[in-house]
Amino acid sequence: MKIIYGFLLPVLSVIVLFSNGVVIFVLNEQKS
């Protein structure tokens, strides 16, 4: 289980960061 979590947590964090960046980018594009 620890191996699975050790692999999933970094992947999930990268996905969250990437999705947040996309949302921020889209909002900035809509403002201008």
Low-confidence stretches: none
Order of helices and strands: H
- Main beta sheet: none
Tell me the radius of gyration: 14 Å
Question: What would the average pLDDT be, to the nearest integer?
Answer: 93
Count of DSSP helices? Answer: 1
In short:
Keywords: Membrane, Transmembrane, Transmembrane helix. The chain crosses the membrane at residues 7-27. The protein has 32 residues and is mostly helical.
Question: Can you put this structure into words, describing what you see?
Answer:
- Keywords: Membrane, Transmembrane, Transmembrane helix.
- This protein has about 30 residues and is mainly alpha-helical.
- It is about 95% helix and about 0% strand.
Describe how the helices and strands are arranged.
Blueprint: H1 2-31
Attribute tags:
32 residues, rod-shaped, 1 helix, mainly alpha
